[in-house]
Design goal:
three-stranded antiparallel sheet, alpha+beta, elongated, 6 strands
């Protein structure tokens, strides 16, 4: 009997440990999303957390899914990425538990965001996706986003999925030039 209780206690202890570790991963993600004023991609969150070796890719994906299911973060998916933002419920939860994240980890996050914030924001400031309409034709939806608002939105027809994909891929690199051209043309400003 004694050894049976010991096994149960060991499994119980391991279960509690897993719960605490998963909670820490959730708090880390909430802390990161709370420290920025823009949504972050799955890849951005995953890169930082795995490079710091806090946990594995698969744990991050599970935690992100649970945070979305619990309404602590929201997600928006396109064909090429998923963007995450902290919700008011997530902010409230973080305010109660953020000190459960060690000062060293919070400092790592703060330093990383201070150094990378502009590059991270630039990555998510443009949106490009496409969808099929009318049997084989496609519409490309293109945006530049600043402070949660679109400053330009374009919808372009594309004859094939391949051309729609090309348009979306090129939008990522050319959106600022296109925006400047449209704005200058409409305002009658010569370059």
């Amino acid at each position: 009997r004694g050894s049976r209780n010991h096994i149960t206690t060991g499994a119980h202890t391991e279960c509690i440990y897993c719960f605490i570790v998963q909670m820490l991963y959730k708090l880390i993600i909430l802390y990161i999303l709370d420290r920025v004023d823009f949504p972050m991609t799955n890849a951005q969150l995953t890169k930082f957390i795995t490079e710091k070796e806090y946990t594995t890719y698969f744990n991050i994906q599970q935690v992100l899914s649970e945070l979305v299911d619990d309404c602590f973060i929201s997600s928006e998916s396109t064909r090429s990425q998923t963007l995450y933002k902290i919700t008011p419920e997530g902010k409230e939860t973080l305010s109660f538990f953020y000190k459960k994240i060690s000062k060293d980890i919070r400092d790592d996050i703060d330093i990383y965001l201070a150094e990378q914030k502009y590059a991270l924001k630039e990555e998510v400031s443009s949106y490009a996706d496409y969808y099929e309409v009318n049997g084989g034709e496609y519409v490309c939806e293109l945006k530049i986003i600043e402070r949660d608002s679109s400053i330009i939105e374009l919808k372009l027809a594309a004859p094939t999925a391949s051309s729609a994909e090309t348009i979306c891929d090129r939008w990522k690199n050319k959106n600022a030039d296109i925006y400047a051209y449209v704005l200058n043309t409409l305002l009658g400003v010569d370059k």
